[in-house]
# Entry
Amino acid sequence: MADGPPTSALDQTAAAFIADVRMQADDHHLVPASMVYPLLGAVEAVLKPHQPGRVTIFGHLCKLHKAHRDFSITAREADDVRACPDCTATVYASCAGCGPQVSVNACRAREAIARELTKGGTP
Ligand SMILES: [Zn+2]
Ligand SMILES: [Zn+2]
# Structure
């Protein structure tokens, strides 16, 4: 909602579909599986590319861990850098969908979906 009106044809189709599902749920207390399933599929499709991707390193690395900057590192190696007293670098898993500059925890697509899902039953 905060992002303004839908622009692309896909957005408009999705918005119309979601409005239709809402109407079915609110007015008729009935949402057929044939409407819910495509909606769930759409959410999954949006989320799919936004998975934890490459580990990104910003800042200073000690001699021991210097090479990590040039290679893709594992979650364990990332933990080593975080625990290392000589490394002052920020290490995070980036979002594969948003790119290396975006932490997977700051991904707006994941955030938005998580926010909606954690709303619970409140209208
Ligand atoms: Zn993302
Ligand atoms: Zn280090």
